[in-house]
């Protein structure tokens, strides 16, 4: 079952001069698939990921997720869609430093408003247990190490049970051991929870372990 | 949009940056406190001046205008012709209001009128020792006059009623009494402009707290003043009227003028200098208050702007995880509103305390005004205004940075 379809995506940068970053990119992702986007720096893989993330709306072509056409929706509609169906893990962990670990994980769920605050807290503990961070739940998130923060960020990405989880070099800033931990969590999510994972990565071991590798060069997909 | 979660984020932001929050708040606090002190004090001064001016002046005064600007005999005989008269003099006419007592009785019937007092006014000299001191004497029915000006409350020594039982008694203004060095029971001579002398006895000393009254005026019985001026029992030169509502006096003065064909003057006209002062002071309050609040507003704008710049990463995360533009606006606007409301409330409290301190600070205005401390008005209206100003300013100052926050492009920040 396909959960994501990108059709004929073209993207241009206008600064310093007009330059085509993505050239007619089309691909699909299936439910429960663990996908890696690889390629040299500047090949456009991150740019593609941010278009898929719905945060970048300045492109040509169409984007569909969960059978819903996302191209042409307003920023607020896209934000609501992200809240419910997408989870993000970034390279530089990106937690809100003033909040506790638990609050960080809870915020997207409180925003969604599907569950009561008490249920949200319970679910947040579950997700933290999944990444083995539940014992740090009440710590200030700025007090954690990089690897720990990245695990919390994964728990946050999972809180609303999204269809797709996207990662922008989620292990790029981590040591070998922590990278493995993150990789195993991703694998578990994809194969046991059947959530789709799309990550941009430079790490060849990480890419090799995933279900499918999409290689990009010069704004085009050269193998998938 | 979920207000509760925006509120929670706003609260966390404010509490983690306590010092910054406090500084932003103090800006508003200072502005509002100064606004409260200024408006309470200046409105107090205005009211005090108005009250003391109104206390001593009638709402409407009716009098006969003595002027040389009357049609000459030649004009009457030879109307329309080119008549030239040099140095025309006033006619030898009486300064009285004909049927004055009748008019008083008529006006008294009007329901809007609080009291009417007929008077005979004249310039006189007071002689105590070799030097004559100039002043005025007003022949009044003291009970009617009391109804208008509350003379009884203003008596400093002696008594008002003593005037009723003493046909040669006078009530003297306190400053005049001090200048002449007379006390209750002392006798002195008064001289009228036409040269009549009369020995009178001071039976009471009063003070309005206004130099132009206390330094010149004496009250006496009507019959005594009529006697020294050698006039008959119906001779009246002025009619003073107090209304129940002072604002109604301005229209009533015109009605009276048309009805009785005598000059009338309302209190606003008589105190136009005070009124102009009022307007200038009110304008000053507005200008300074707006300045203070604008400065406080810029303070908040700056701090919130910095806040938004510092929180760009957080805003990007919130947007990535599904918070919409409205949520982000709410997060930052709520912070401004909290700062505004708390700052304004603290400002009201400080403003009230300072106003209170001012209201008990001794202040000696000399003989010019009867005041012991600074006049300050405590009116809930000003406090509500201060609160509203504070909140509106902070909302305006907070909205621009909040909107800027909502417009942040998360991709640019997350990609680094």
Automatic annotation (TrEMBL), chain A:
It comes from Emticicia soli. Keywords: ATP-binding, Nucleotide-binding, Translocase, Transport. PROSITE patterns: ABC_TRANSPORTER_1, ABC_TRANSPORTER_2. Belongs to the ABC transporter superfamily. This is ABC transporter ATP-binding protein. The keyword Cytoplasm does not apply. Pfam families: ABC_tran (PF00005). GO terms for molecular function: ATP binding. Residues 4-222 form the ABC transporter domain. InterPro entries: AAA+_ATPase, ABC_transporter-like_ATP-bd, ABC_transporter-like_CS, MacB-like_ATP-bd, P-loop_NTPase.
UniProtKB/TrEMBL annotation, chain B:
InterPro entries: ABC3_permease_C, Lipoprotein-release_system, MacB_PCD. Residues 287-410 form the ABC3 transporter permease C-terminal domain. It is found in: Cell membrane. Keywords: Cell membrane, Membrane, Transmembrane, Transmembrane helix. Pfam families: FtsX (PF02687), MacB_PCD (PF12704). It is a multi-pass membrane protein. Residues 21-256 form the MacB-like periplasmic core domain. The chain crosses the membrane at residues 21-42, 283-303, 328-360, 380-400. PANTHER family: LIPOPROTEIN-RELEASING SYSTEM TRANSMEMBRANE PROTEIN LOLE. Belongs to the ABC-4 integral membrane protein family. LolC/E subfamily. This is ABC transporter permease.
């Amino acid at each position: 079952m396909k959960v994501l379809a990108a059709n004929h995506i073209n993207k241009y940068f206008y600064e310093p001069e007009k330059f085509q970053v993505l050239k007619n990119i089309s691909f699909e992702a299936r439910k429960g698939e663990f996908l890696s986007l690889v390629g040299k720096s500047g090949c456009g893989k991150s740019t593609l990921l941010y278009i898929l993330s719905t945060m970048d709306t300045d492109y040509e072509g169409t984007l569909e997720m969960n059978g819903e056409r996302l191209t042409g929706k307003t920023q607020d509609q896209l934000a609501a869609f992200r809240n419910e169906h997408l989870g993000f893990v970034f390279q530089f962990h990106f937690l809100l430093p003033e909040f506790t670990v638990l609050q960080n994980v809870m915020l997207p769920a409180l925003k969604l408003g599907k569950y009561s605050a008490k249920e949200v807290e319970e679910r947040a503990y579950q997700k933290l247990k999944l990444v083995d961070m539940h014992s740090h739940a009440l710590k200030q998130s700025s007090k954690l190490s990089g690897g720990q923060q990245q695990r919390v960020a994964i728990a946050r990405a999972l809180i609303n049970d999204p269809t797709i989880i996207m990662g922008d070099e989620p292990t790029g800033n981590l040591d070998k051991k922590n990278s493995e931990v993150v990789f195993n969590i991703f694998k578990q999510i994809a194969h046991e929870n059947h959530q789709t994972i799309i990550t941009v990565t430079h790490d060849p071991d990480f890419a090799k372990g995933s279900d499918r590798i999409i290689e990009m060069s010069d704004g085009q997909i050269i193998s998938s | 949009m979920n207000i509760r979660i925006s509120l929670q984020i706003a609260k966390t932001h404010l509490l983690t940056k306590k010092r910054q929050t406090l500084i932003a708040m103090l800006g508003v606090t200072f502005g509002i406190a100064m606004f409260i002190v200024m408006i309470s004090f200046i409105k107090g001064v205005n009211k005090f001046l108005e009250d003391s001016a109104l206390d001593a002046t009638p709402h409407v005064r009716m009098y006969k205008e003595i002027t040389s600007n009357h049609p000459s005999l030649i004009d009457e005989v030879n109307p329309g012709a080119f008549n030239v008269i040099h140095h025309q003099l006033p006619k030898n006419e009486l300064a009285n209001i004909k049927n004055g007592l009748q008019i008083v009785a008529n006006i008294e019937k009007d329901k809007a009128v609080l009291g009417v007092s007929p008077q005979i006014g004249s310039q006189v000299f007071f002689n105590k020792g070799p030097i004559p001191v100039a002043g005025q004497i007003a022949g009044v029915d003291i009970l009617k006059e009391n109804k208008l000006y509350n003379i009884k409350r203003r008596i400093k020594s002696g008594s008002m009623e003593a005037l009723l039982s003493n046909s040669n008694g006078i009530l003297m203004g306190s400053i005049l009494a001090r200048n002449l060095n007379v006390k209750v029971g002392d006798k002195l001579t008064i001289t009228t402009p036409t040269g009549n002398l009369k020995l009178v006895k001071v039976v009471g000393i009063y003070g309005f707290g206004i130099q132009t009254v206390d330094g010149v005026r004496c009250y006496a019985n009507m019959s005594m003043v009529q006697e020294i001026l050698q006039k008959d029992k119906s001779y009246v030169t002025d009619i003073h009227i107090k209304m129940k509502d002072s604002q109604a006096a301005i229209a009533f003065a015109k009605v009276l003028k048309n009805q009785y064909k005598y000059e009338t003057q309302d209190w606003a006209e008589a105190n136009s200098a005070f009124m102009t002062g009022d307007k200038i002071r009110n304008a000053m309050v507005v200008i300074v208050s707006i300045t203070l609040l604008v400065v406080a507003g810029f303070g908040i704008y700056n701090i919130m702007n910095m806040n938004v710049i510092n929180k760009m990463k957080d805003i990007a995360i919130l947007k990535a995880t599904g918070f919409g533009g409205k949520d982000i606006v709410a997060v930052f606007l709520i912070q401004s509103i909290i700062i505004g409301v708390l700052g304004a409330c603290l400002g009201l409290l400080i403003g009230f305390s300072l106003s209170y301190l001012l209201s008990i600070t001794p202040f000696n205005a000399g003989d010019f005004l009867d005041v012991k401390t600074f006049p300050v008005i405590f009116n809930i209206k000003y406090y509500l205004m201060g609160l509203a100003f504070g909140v509106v300013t902070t909302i305006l100052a907070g909205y621009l940075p909040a909107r800027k926050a909502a417009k942040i492009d998360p991709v640019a920040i997350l990609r680094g």
